[in-house]
């Protein structure tokens, strides 16, 4: 009898799981990476989404949600006729829909969440990693808030809106894409050449977090290598006074240092004889932060930090060099745009995020220019632990147009400030890039100065690749030169000279194209010629390094849609130059640079 019951129960589970699986499947039609095969309806990006401020009490809300697409002005719909796999954007194959969202449409999401059992006045936070572009959030039919901007995280305290048993969570999204002058990077409704599939709606992890009534809302970690301390600032969710902060730095289980102070004030954590973070030794300290009042513990989080210094210093010949921990390091990087054939802006898995960074590390690159996109927190976490320096671009506005409306300027500057705040603690980020090739540029000198004030611990690249030689107040003089890196900025006193983009050679991998027969790039060669061409480019970088060049960014680590100028195919299946050979070529450049940049 028991065996029969077990068989019936097993069959029931089978039919339930089969029914759920039939509600979602990857939309076929284009190439995909091998990581896409690992995605199931119940395992969408399950990792903890915020590695630099960790609490154990959380719940991942990724997975199958109900959804529908309506006209833009539609109010709450009665019928949700589709299933979508969150957090993959609606345009992606992994969403299960793969439908472009037009500016005259609105995307709706819905799912149920259960009210947790609260003890001792616990609160319930609803977090969104990123939603593109304007999101409105409802709990049980009541609007609880909205957020504008496609790249920054946001959250709401939904405790008081929850009822017993199930609660209905609805998210409404409108995305203008190129119909308005917004920060959108290279998203476009009709992809062509170097412009790619748009991302609309939820595209990063959605999650719930349990916190106390008074909790740590934000942490700021700024290393000061010269003075041997970490500057720490802890902000709370309210204005509660006289809250004590205790901070401990650890190396494994060994206590390195500890200190205390008041919340909302700058606290110096001593780090004597620091183990410095570098590209060859990316050492990270663990950090424990707790708050208390009148001897009662209120909240605690786990974090990490790296002790490193980034600066521009003159070498013995008078050339300005980018220095990591006071040592010149050639910033040989790639222009990473953060696109995936099956996920658009969203990587299929966390291991896929890690793979892209690790492969560039194996090839001998020391940095990545994250191009006009802000990634999920876990991408920067992987850069931190792998030892990959990052130039972080600010997402740009519409190509070749100026912002002339006050509200557009206000929104752009708001998103720039939000990007700095959300990424400020990552040791891997060494540079902020304000503008790219004049796209939507205005008030460059003012905004460059404001970036320096907001974060004096990093370099500021006020304009990567402008059409004129003009980098006021910038730490970097930066031009773009395709294909050969034969021209670079010279004699810009006080500014390190870099080539913000070069390469971009079109190399088609047959059988691995986004749209067979369509390809774009700067010139076109056969795959067997790319190794020789790349080696000749690096030889040119060596010669220019002797004249002051200290960084160059190759376009790009992988093909993106019909733009086929990557070091590997878009599906990450074909590496166009063997990894070992790439490493040999690049290491020769680094060795040459060590000898000349003293």
Please give a structural write-up:
The protein has 598 residues and is an alpha/beta fold. It folds into 3 domains: 210 residues, Galactose-binding domain-like (Jelly Rolls), CATH 2.60.120; 71 residues, Immunoglobulin-like; 269 residues, TIM Barrel (Alpha-Beta Barrel), CATH 3.20.20.80. It is 18% helix and 31% strand. The chain contains 7 helices and 32 strands. The strands form 8 sheets. An 8-stranded parallel beta sheet has the order 29-28-27-26-25-32-31-30, with helices on one face. The protein has a 6-stranded antiparallel beta sheet with strand order 3-2-4-10-7-8, with no helix packed on it. Strands 1-14-5-9 form a 4-stranded antiparallel beta sheet, with no helix packed on it. Helix 2 runs parallel beside helix 3 and helix 6 packs parallel to helix 7. The longest helix is centred in the first third of the chain and has 21 residues. It is globular and about 70 Å long. The N terminus is likely disordered.
């Amino acid at each position: 009898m028991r065996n029969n019951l077990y068989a019936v129960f097993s069959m029931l589970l089978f039919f339930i799981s089969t029914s759920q699986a039939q509600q979602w499947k990857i939309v076929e039609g284009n190439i995909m990476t091998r990581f896409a095969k690992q995605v199931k309806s119940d395992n969408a990006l399950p990792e903890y989404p915020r590695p630099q401020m960790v609490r154990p009490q959380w719940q991942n809300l990724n997975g199958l949600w109900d959804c529908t697409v309506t006209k833009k002005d539609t109010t709450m719909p009665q019928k949700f006729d589709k299933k979508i796999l969150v957090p993959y954007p609606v345009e992606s194959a992994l969403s299960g829909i793969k439908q472009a969202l037009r500016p005259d449409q609105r995307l709706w999401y819905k799912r149920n969440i259960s009210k947790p059992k609260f003890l001792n006045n616990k609160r319930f936070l609803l977090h969104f990693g990123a939603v593109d572009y304007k999101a409105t959030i409802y709990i049980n039919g009541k609007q609880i808030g909205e957020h504008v901007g496609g790249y920054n995280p946001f959250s709401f305290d939904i405790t008081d809106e929850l009822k017993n048993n199930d609660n209905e969570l609805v998210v409404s999204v409108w995305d203008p894409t190129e119909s308005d002058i917004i920060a959108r990077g290279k998203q476009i409704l009709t992809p062509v050449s170097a412009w790619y599939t748009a991302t609309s709606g939820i595209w990063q992890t959605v999650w719930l977090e349990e916190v106390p009534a008074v909790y740590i809302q934000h942490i700021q970690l700024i290393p000061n290598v010269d003075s041997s301390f970490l500057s720490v600032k802890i902000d709370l969710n309210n204005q509660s006074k006289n809250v004590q902060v205790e901070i401990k730095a650890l190396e494994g289980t060994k206590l390195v240092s500890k200190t205390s102070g008041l919340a909302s004030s700058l606290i110096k954590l001593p780090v004597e004889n620091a183990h410095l973070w570098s590209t060859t030794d990316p050492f990270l300290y663990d950090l424990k932060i707790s708050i208390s009042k009148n001897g009662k513990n209120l909240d605690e989080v786990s974090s990490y930090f790296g002790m490193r210094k980034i600066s521009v210093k003159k070498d013995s010949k008078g050339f300005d060099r980018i220095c990591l921990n006071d040592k010149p390091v050639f910033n040989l990087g790639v222009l990473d745009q953060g696109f995936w054939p099956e996920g658009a802006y969203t990587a299929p898995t966390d291991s896929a995020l890690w793979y892209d960074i690790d492969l560039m590390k194996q090839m001998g690159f020391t940095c990545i220019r994250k191009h006009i996109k802000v990634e999920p927190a876990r991408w920067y976490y992987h850069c931190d632990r792998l030892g990959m320096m990052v130039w972080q671009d600010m997402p740009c506005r519409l190509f070749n147009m100026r912002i002339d409306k006050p509200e557009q300027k206000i929104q752009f500057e708001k998103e720039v400030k939000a990007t700095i705040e959300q990424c400020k603690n990552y040791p891997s980020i060494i540079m902020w890039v304000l503008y790219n090739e004049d796209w939507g540029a205005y008030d460059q000198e003012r905004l460059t100065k404001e970036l320096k004030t907001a974060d004096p611990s990093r370099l500021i690249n006020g304009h990567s690749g402008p059409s004129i030689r003009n980098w006021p107040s910038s730490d970097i003089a930066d031009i773009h030169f395709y294909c050969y890196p034969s021209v670079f900025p010279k004699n810009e006193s006080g500014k390190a000279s870099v080539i913000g983009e070069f390469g971009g050679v079109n190399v088609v991998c047959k059988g691995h194209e986004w749209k067979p027969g369509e390809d774009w790039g700067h010139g076109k060669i056969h795959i067997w010629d790319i190794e020789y061409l790349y080696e000749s480019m690096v030889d040119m970088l060596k010669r220019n390094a002797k004249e002051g060049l200290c960084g160059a960014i190759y376009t790009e680590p992988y093909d993106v849609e019909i733009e086929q100028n990557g070091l590997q195919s878009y599906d990450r299946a074909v590496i166009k130059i063997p990894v070992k050979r790439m490493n040999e070529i690049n290491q020769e450049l680094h060795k040459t640079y060590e000898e000349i940049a003293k």
